[in-house]
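Researcher: Next sequence.
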Amino acid sequence: MKLQNILLLLSSYVFYCFGDWRFLILLIGSSAIAYFLGIKIDEHEGNKKKFYVNIGLVLAIGTLFYFKYFNFFIDSFAELLGIKNTLTLNIALPLGISFYTFRMISYFLDIKNKKLKPETDALVFFNYIAFFPSMISGPIDRGRLLFPQLKNTRVFTYENGADAARQILYGAFKKLVVANSITPITQEIFQNYHHLSGSTVAFGAILFLFEIYADFSGYSDMAIGFARLLGFKITKNFAFPLFAQNIAEYWRKWHISLTSWLTDYVFTPLVIQFRDYEKKGLIAAIILNFVLIGAWHGPRYTFVLFGLLHGLYYIPLILTNKLNKKKKFLKSVPTFQELGNILLTMMMVCFAFILFAAPNLTDAAGMYGRIFSLSLFSIPQFIKVKILGFIFILILIDWINKDKEHGLEISRFNPFLRNLLYVFLIFMIMYFGMFGNSNFIYEQF
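Model: Next structure:
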């Protein structure tokens, strides 16, 4: 087990160096500080415990703030005062800093709340922070999940290996075929929206939903698959959100590790704090939670508004007491009502994704202006049958396996059909895959 962990840590650090070796010192230093602070938090009670918790939170959040938000706040402050900004710094964003910072924060808070004992094995702890399958784009794993696995010898089994390979294959199809094929089209639409019809901009927003879903869930599939090849079971990050029947269900299925993280450490404490205000307090807690989700993505006002809009989407569900009601599909084919619910939810999501895609408020307003024009009723440009075919395959595979762990969990299928699907997906990747755009959208966060 120790030898496995040594090899895993070295692999994680080598992997990190491929992104930017200069920040390896930051990663190792942050891990060392978090390791010692976790032990100190557990050793003390009262004010001393609070002191070490606050030190850990300030260092973790402060580091994230400096690298990710410092220039944004300095620029905004200077603009507000109408003065020339001379403090803008050339700051590069360390790879995966948002993800490993949230791991550290949850570690401190779980020890504080006695949900977790501090990890005294430095090799285990450093592996937890630097775990390379989920370093670039998550999922955001908790210590409670990874520590026990890091302390046990991992044994490779054929069943896990085969299922992991299927998940990796499907993730590669999502990324290389679906997402990478859509990216040039959405870039063309969003960069030139001034000259395009409202229907084309709206079509771009629809395509962007499938692009970001295929890109992000494709990465998650591959990360989970590679982790399973190493003997780990990490956090599931997507649960077929394209079939959500309301916005609350969508967020229970989309970027699950971030949603659950914020539910535990932000939303739940806010609900307790605002409990005397009943539904108004619940609305306030949800809106604040989603503003933070938006801001987590980066230093842009459009991201904040993206989160705010999703928070506002929850208000009808809260007022009608439908927030926690989960809907299951009645048949293998969705009913008209279920299909209507899905389409309405996806329309809301696509509408909000305009804010996500726009680089600034001016462009976001311009895109919405094009959508809310008479040209919305014209025939959109950039419709390609090939791209629509890729999306159809993605939706079909997801729908067939919507109650499974991942989209290619098909061990129950006839062996001939399984092999046929494997060959088909490999052919699609080799023939239609676009390997030039290897970056993942969530790398920048």
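Model: The radius of gyration is 23 Å. The mean pLDDT is 90.
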